[in-house]
Amino acid sequence: MSPPTPRRRRALPVLTAALAALLCGLAPPAAADDGPPDWTARPAGGTDRDARPYVYLEGTPGTVLQDRLTVTNSGRAPLTVRLRGDGRAGDWIRFAEDTVTVPARTRADVPLALTVPHDAVPGDTSGEAVATGGGEEIRVPVRIRTVGPTLAALGVEDVEVSGGTIRYALVNRGNAMLRPRLAVRAEGVFGTLLDRPERPLPLELAPGRRVERTEPWPDAPALDAVTVRLRVTASGGARDEAEASATYLPVAPAIGGGLLVLGGLAALASGAYRRWRTGRAGPQPPPDAGPAVQPEPPEQAQLPVATEPLLKAGVKT
């Protein structure tokens, strides 16, 4: 094979570049890296820096409250978003359109209306405005305050002490959002065993909500009779107390004492049985034993011995 001419050598790089471009054009596009969605949903108004963190509405029972939800499409293609309500107040929320198509690099403000039920209890209620599109879901918090007289009522119940754990339940019996505070005190036979001052609990208790919680007690006594008292409070004058009792006994001494008691009872029962058997084995009188000599009848004993021949001879006396 003859070596390539200078013209062929100059054409070789051009042909190589053209072939590479053709292959790149035929190759499928690389998959985009997973990252944040190229669209957002948030309460309308303000800018990205001072945007509202949630939708807040306030009104009396039976009123219709209005706001807007902003959907921003920063992508290069149109975006279709579905809107709905969720949470406790999800059924109260309605959108002007349940499905919205937002053009590329465009923002759409969607009106929403929230109807407070006529039988709504005054206090705080929460829900969410949910936007779904492009394989992503964004939830915007919605908080509603129903205007009217509020009642703060908090209860603690089902207190139970087991080993190093205190179990209890908190119940919001009012119509206001509560942030409970808890104090714990335990009294034993010889004095106070536990005294934890009042402290806030890491929870927000909605009206009607019940939460079961535990309180650790790692240094619980090994031998004592204990009464544990729980006191819970919250803003608005909410307050309640409850208590429970427990008896702590060491496991090994309790088992040993039980075995000693069982052994003593067995010894007493054995001795009583032996005494009973000994009594049954003693001498018994014969059933038909009686005097060896029977006395003569009184009439025969009074007859004189000398009269017997006379009677035989027929002589009358």
Quick overview of this protein structure:
This protein has 317 residues and is an alpha+beta fold. The protein is 20% helix and 41% strand.
Describe the structure.
20% of the residues lie in helices and 41% in strands. With 317 residues, it is of the alpha+beta class. It has a 5-stranded mixed sheet, with no helix packed on it. Strands 1-3-7-5 form a 4-stranded antiparallel sheet, with no helix packed on it. Strands 13-12-15-16 form a 4-stranded antiparallel sheet, with no helix packed on it. It is elongated, with a radius of gyration of 51 Å. The termini are far apart.
Shape: elongated
- Biggest sheet record: 5 strands, mixed
Return the average pLDDT rounded to an integer: 81
Secondary-structure element order, as H and E? HEEEEEEEEEEEEEEEEHHH
Structural class: alpha+beta
Low-confidence stretches: 27-33, 300-317
Q: How many β strands by DSSP?
A: 16
Strands, helices and their partners?
Elements: H1 6-26, E1 39-43, E2 55-59, E3 64-73, E4 79-86, E5 93-95, E6 99-102, E7 106-115, E8 123-133, E9 136-146, E10 154-162, E11 165-172, E12 181-188, E13 191-200, E14 210-216, E15 224-234, E16 238-248, H2 251-280, H3 298-302, H4 307-313
Parallel strand pairs: 2-9
Antiparallel strand pairs: 1-3, 3-7, 4-6, 4-8, 5-7, 8-9, 10-11, 11-14, 12-13, 12-15, 15-16
